[in-house]
Amino acid sequence: MLYNNILVPYDGSQPSHVAMQHAFNFTKMDTLPVATKIIHLLYVIQEIRVPPELYSYPLHELDKLTAKYIKDLYHDLETKAVNMLRAKSLEYKGAGEIAISTHVLLGDPADKIIEFANGEN
User: Fold this and answer.
1) I need a surface site. Which of 42, 66, 105, 108 has the fewest CB within 10 A?
2) How far apart are CA 83 and CA 104, in angstroms?
3) Residue 60 carries which DSSP code?
């Protein structure tokens, strides 16, 4: 069996560290040229459910503060996720010549993982 396009949903937990190690080991099990092998590290930021009444029109000052807070929160979470995935991919960069791509998505983790897997085969 060939393991050349592997998705690793990664959240920084111990099980996701183990999953990354297994993915890396799987890519070494076949004889395909290294250029054809890729590991996709995927982090999904859970979407925050905000009651619609907080975004009533016209926007009140509280609504604007809530919207700004959520936007800033998503930005911070994305920055942390990108840095975490970059650090993890660097751990494996010198260990083999496998391409590691990193992806950060927003939404329901289960849905986004399945959507990404289907899109990348």
Assistant:
1) 108
2) 11
3) P
